[in-house]
Amino acid sequence: MSKSPIQTSSARATYSSHHTSYRTPALTSTTTQGWVFIELVWSGWGISGPGNAHGLHVCKYNGADHLCFFQGNQQKGYCRGHGIIMDKNYRVVRSVQPGGGMASSDMHEFRPINGGKTALMTIYQQRQFDMTPWNVKTGVGWIMESVFQEVEVETNKVLFEWRSLDHVDPSSSYTWPAHTDTSGTGLNVHEPWDYFHINSIDKNAAGDYLISSRHTSAVYKISGTDGSVMWRLHGAQPSFRNINFSFSQQHDARWLYENATHTFLSLYNNGYNGFNKTHTYSAGMIIMIDHEEKTAIQIRNYVPIEHDLVSSSQGNLQMLPNRNAFIGWGNNPFVSEHDEAGNLLFWGSFAKDTVMNYRAMKFEWDGVPTDSPALWTYSRSAERLSPTSFYVSWNGATRVNKWRFWGAMNMTGPWTLLDEIAKTGFETEYTNSSFYLWAKVEAVDREGIVLGESETKYTFVPSSELSEFCTDSTCFDAQGYGYPGEEAAVPFIPPVGVNTVPWIDPNNPGSNIWTHPSSYPSPSSTPNYSDGWDIGRLLAWGTVLLVVIPLFAGAFLGHRYYTRHSLNQSEDQESSGLMNDMPERKHPPLQATDLPWWNWRRWFGEDEATSYLPLGERRLYSHRRERERNE
């Protein structure tokens, strides 16, 4: 089983690849000659559900690797939603909500721990509050209380809950009402004052918690027994004296190591909230706390490639198993990796400047999607030597090493293996020098095993009118209605019944090539395109039918005539002696052979002759036939 290193991030806006828009991407990176190339592995856009997704990372659940993230609707500075656990097939296996009658969970932390048995979750809860010290005097004020819970994943049972108003007074906040775009006014339930703004939770082996508060610019150690604040780093009432650093508006505080005398932790220092700037650049930090000396010292500082980059929101620092540091630069769409000493190993951008990234993380991941590879094929015309371009991807598949490309002129084949090429990023492009009306691809792993096959696809061929605005490899989006230079062009309305879909039979609109693959129509750019093999087969069958049917009909009619004639002669000879003593017939019997050749009775009548006799003669004739049968 192969795994791919991925960097995961959750974006609050979308960005585009060749044909698709993505959100909540999982990325791979490769390096060559000093450059770092980041490729999309899996996009959760439209898969993880509506709304935004945050904090995508690999977690343990039921003994196996899963993808965990928050999914919900964005509010001002917080979210309403739930935690998602997704297996390696990208199927949601568990949705996790907070308990205790609280609001739905928030984006800042959803982190399964203890092998996925429990999860840490943040909650932003509005509460009525006496805000007269902040000049809210004509009525009750509203405050946003930061809450975190540890819950059982299977039952959502609350195992531990902590509320900021029980332990941290709002006077400790550095973000006042109506101070920033996310602080809130405190005047109504829709704009509560967010005085604390919890943005991370971690838990140590002793059962205590480490939390970060952006709006108090402090990190707190919380007792897992009674919820009391055991110590606070930085902020208005710090427990330690900072020796060589400061931070503000920070994110993502994590335990690294601790014993009875020292604590090592990491965090991402924003140094800016969009309104108040305390640092010239944002950075990742490792801090050592000396509990005996009551001091805190910065021992690592991971800086951006340019020392003027600041993140006004979001961001994280992940310490890797090899002691490297991986950083997501918050509302700036950058990621970087640094060695243990702080030296920059790579710096990458994964989107345009308008994209925000809450956290970026690096993990090993093995993804096995249950759907099929996606394929789109294009040819500028349906001429035999017109190149056919293939665009193939398989969202989330990490085991694909090569793609096999197949082409055919009929939906049912025969199929021709065109080529097998190495996978190149999220979407692989391949062009064959000939035209194929139908196409499919196979995904192949390193051992040559076929992992999956795409659906059979009908090649897109632009009309002759459209093709002049296309290239040999694709057609670009239209820039407007009409031709270039046409002013105030508007959409046309074609007459009802005109056939504009190439795979629909105009003579039978109820069917198409998927239900009747043998009668597919030709592409609109060329009239009646067919390959030579189909024409030859049609001519051969026509010749056979024209020759065989007349021969068979002649043989049948000749045999029928001979049988009739022999039967009539035999009956006449046998009955001649009996008929000599009878009176002369007034109406002799009419034999089948006496009928004209074009009368159907001559060839398909009864075996015995049809007689038109007087009643007496008819009775005598019947007696004779009965006697002959009895003999």
From TrEMBL:
Keywords assigned: Membrane, Transmembrane, Transmembrane helix
Domain of life: Eukaryota
Transmembrane segments: 538-557
Name of this chain's protein: Pc16g12510 protein
Organism, scientific name: Penicillium rubens (strain ATCC 28089 / DSM 1075 / NRRL 1951 / Wisconsin 54-1255)
